[in-house]
Specification:
Blueprint (H helix, E strand, L loop, with lengths): L1 E5 L3 H13 L3 E5 L2 H10 L5 E5 L7 H11 L4 E5 L4 H9 L4 E4 L4 H20 L4 E3 L4 E4 L4 E4 L2 E2 L4 H11 L6 E2 H9 L8 H14 L5 E4 L3 E4 L13
Helix pairs in contact: 2-3, 4-8, 6-7, 6-8
This protein binds calcium ion.
Length: 234
């Protein structure tokens, strides 16, 4: 499995790269933001990116955002800054998970396995495009969302959140269930992150009523058959 390690501090990067190689990863290193973008462009088969936020040239958040403009490669952010804003921002920009320095090596490997497993599982899903009402079409297999035929760019988490709600339109998913399935059992961050993602998803979908808030419980996708004359799509 090809892994890109973006870290400017050799004292951290070297032992980390060696450890990861022992775990069977093919490790490529970059020590700057520009270097990371170039390395990723050169290696389209990269399956995971470990991204330090404190880089000498471009801010790690910006690197994350730029990677996400044309790639859905899983990104684990590594940061020395552990406060809540950083966490929310890091995830909103499309990172899949994060670790705060100092972290244990086994913890890192467990996170990498969890993130790549989720990414792989989605790619193997054989579902075709599903019409969800309001012109919204979700294609899990192609990892695409469109409204009235126009593609909407979602971050990985936004897509996973929508896919989870869309797996059973009209059914309420509790906050705990969503955090566990979209973020994973390792998620100890603020649950506010979920609200940030729902808000941004609603904004992108352009119809705030598509995702309904069930106060004190969770969220659900508006039932496409409810209150409209939505016909069969087959
Ligand atoms: Ca650094």
């Amino acid at each position: 499995m090809e892994l890109l390690l973006v870290e400017d501090d050799d004292a951290i990067a070297e032992p980390l790269a060696k450890g990861l190689e022992r775990q069977g990863f093919e490790v490529f290193r970059a020590s700057s933001g520009e270097g990371a973008l170039v390395a990723l462009a050169e290696r389209p088969r990269t399956e995971i990116v470990l991204l330090d936020l404190g880089l000498p040239d471009i801010d790690g958040y910006e690197v994350c955002r730029r990677i996400r403009t044309d790639s859905s490669v899983p990104i684990i952010v590594i940061t020395a800054r552990g406060d809540e804003i950083d966490r929310v921002l890091g995830l909103e920009l499309g990172a899949d998970d994060y670790l705060v320095k100092p972290f244990g090596f086994r913890e890192l490997v467990a996170r990498i396995r969890a993130v790549t497993r989720r990414a792989g599982g989605r790619d193997e899903a054989q579902e075709g495009p599903v019409e969800l009402g309001g012109g919204l079409v979700l294609d899990t297999r192609a990892h695409r969302v469109s409204i009235d035929g126009e593609e909407i760019a979602l971050t990985r988490k936004e897509f996973d959140l929508l896919a989870l709600l869309a797996s059973d339109p009209g059914a309420t998913r509790t906050r705990e269930e969503i955090l566990e399935q979209v973020w994973d059992a390792h998620w100890y961050g603020p649950t506010k992150t979920l609200d940030v993602h729902v808000a941004s998803l609603r904004r992108k979908l352009g119809d705030p009523t598509l995702i309904e808030t069930v106060r004190g419980v969770g969220f659900r996708l508006r039932d496409p058959g409810e209150g409209s004359s939505a016909g069969s799509t087959s």
